[in-house]
Design goal:
Blueprint lengths: L1 H17 L14 E5 L2 H4 L2 H10 L14 E5 L6 H4 L3 E7 L7 E6 L7 E7 L2 H33 L6 H5 L3 E2 L7 E5 L3 E7 L4 E10 L8 H15 L9 E3 L6 E7 L2 E12 L5 E10 L4 E10 L6 H11 L3 E2 L1
Parallel strand pairs: 1-2, 1-3, 3-5
Antiparallel strand pairs: 4-5, 6-15, 7-8, 8-9, 9-14, 10-12, 11-12, 12-13, 13-14
Helix pairs in contact: 3-5, 5-8
Length: 322
């Protein structure tokens, strides 16, 4: 009997702990908003400057300047329930009795989904150095969390009619409801979501893969331009989508879901017209020795572009090989 009671208590405790997160309120704030728990004098000094320099840099490859994150400083004594429910929180903590500095990441403490990043250092000098050395890491933690949140929504509201057209390229992309298939050829598909004020699109296309020399910005973009000239016309005869070379595109190589990705970011434009916007292009080699491109673009002439680019990135970062 005693053993049964103990087992029952353990089961109840395990159930309570497992369901604690289910009782949390939904987090608030817009994507990219970050509450910084920090004293006013610290925010106004070198620690605050280090945070701003690391996290408020302009997001890359946008036609207008838009900071990566919006930071909102809140003193600890004012850090109440309203602020505790924010989606992203950075907490600046000092421990004068210890020389150790570290970054601690937790999730869903006061709300869900929620990211809390606590920075701990002995004093101002150590904290400033901690931020300067780890600014990119902190930035990537928040960006990754924002993408994960979007991917979870996209998975829940996936546009299933687009699965088969995408799978023929040997990859999978999680694309949400609202996207429609505009063009489907043997080696090229064009998918987009259209509203009166904004257009978001995805291209997927493939070419034969020969060797690693293709992973070069000039070569990748030359192929991109030839494909888009053929398949993506502009609003008037003789117009078509191409790359804006007056803004130098940037490249990055990384691994995503166990697969090599060659990324190019830049601006697109329409030849002989005034349309344009940002794009992000992923190139990856799939099993049948094909080089597959997956690209997202945004056209939103009267809107901030960053939120829409983040939505496109969440789709691209869902890329897996079949």
């Amino acid at each position: 009997m005693k053993k049964n009671i103990i087992f029952l208590l353990i089961s109840i405790l395990a159930y309570a702990c497992g369901n604690k997160k289910d009782l949390l309120p939904n987090s608030g704030g817009k994507p990219g908003e970050v509450i910084v728990v920090i004293e006013k004098q610290v925010w106004n000094g070198e620690v605050g400057d280090a945070l701003k320099n690391s996290l408020m840099q302009d997001y890359p490859a946008l036609p207008q300047d838009e900071p990566t994150f919006s930071l909102y400083p809140v003193p600890l004594e004012n850090f109440n329930d309203i602020f505790q429910s924010n989606r992203n929180i950075i907490k600046i903590s000092f421990n004068p009795n210890s020389d150790s500095t570290f970054i601690r990441k937790t999730n869903d403490r006061w709300a869900k989904p929620q990211l809390i990043i606590e920075l701990v250092a002995k004093d101002i000098k150590a904290m400033t150095k901690l931020i300067q050395l780890n600014g990119n890491k902190i930035k990537e933690l928040i960006l990754s969390e924002e993408r994960t949140r979007l991917k979870q929504v996209y998975t829940k509201f996936r546009e299933k009619s687009l699965i088969t057209p995408i799978h023929k390229f040997g990859i999978d992309l999680i694309i949400p409801n609202g996207y429609k298939l505009n063009l489907d050829t043997t080696n090229f598909i064009w998918i987009s979501s259209e509203t009166p004020y904004m257009s978001q699109g995805i291209f997927v296309y493939s070419i034969p893969y020969n060797d690693t020399s293709i992973f070069n910005t000039t070569k990748i973009l030359a192929i991109r331009d030839s494909v888009l000239k053929k398949y993506i016309p502009g609003p008037l005869q003789g117009t078509y989508m191409t790359t804006e070379y007056n803004y130098p595109p940037s490249e990055k190589r990384f691994e995503l879901n166990g697969n090599f990705i060659y990324e190019i970011r830049g601006l697109w434009r329409v030849e002989n017209d005034f349309m344009g916007g940002p794009f992000v292009n992923f190139a990856t080699v799939v099993k049948n020795n094909k080089l597959v491109y997956a690209e997202g673009y945004v056209y939103a002439p009267k809107e901030d572009k960053k939120p829409f680019v983040w939505q496109m990135e969440a789709i691209l970062y869902s890329l897996t090989h079949l």
